[in-house]
Amino acid sequence: MKEINEEPDNSKPDTRRQKPSIRKRRWLWAGGIVAAIFVLFVVLVTLVNTNPYLGAEGADWLRGIIGDKAVAGLEMLVFQVQDDLQKLKYSLGMGNPAGDYGAFPTSTAIPTLALKTNTPYHPPGTMTPTMTGTLEPTPTATVPWQPATVPPLSMAKNEGVWIPYIQNALGQTVAYKTFVQPDPSRPYTLVTIVAIDLTQTRLHYVLGAIDPTLPGEPPHSGKMNLADRAANILLAEFNGGFQARHGQFGAMANGSQALPPRDGLGTVAIYQNGDVRLGEWGTDLFLSADMTAFRQNGPLVIRKGQINSQIYNNSPQDWGYTVIDVSPTVRSGIGLSQDNQTLYYFCGPSLTMEALAKSMQAAGAYNAIQLDINNYWVLFVKITPSGSKLTAEPLLPRLMVDGVERYLTQSPRDFFYITGLNNK
Question: Among the listed ranges 144-148, 163-167, 319-323, which one has the minimum average pLDDT value?
Answer without folding.
Answer: 319-323
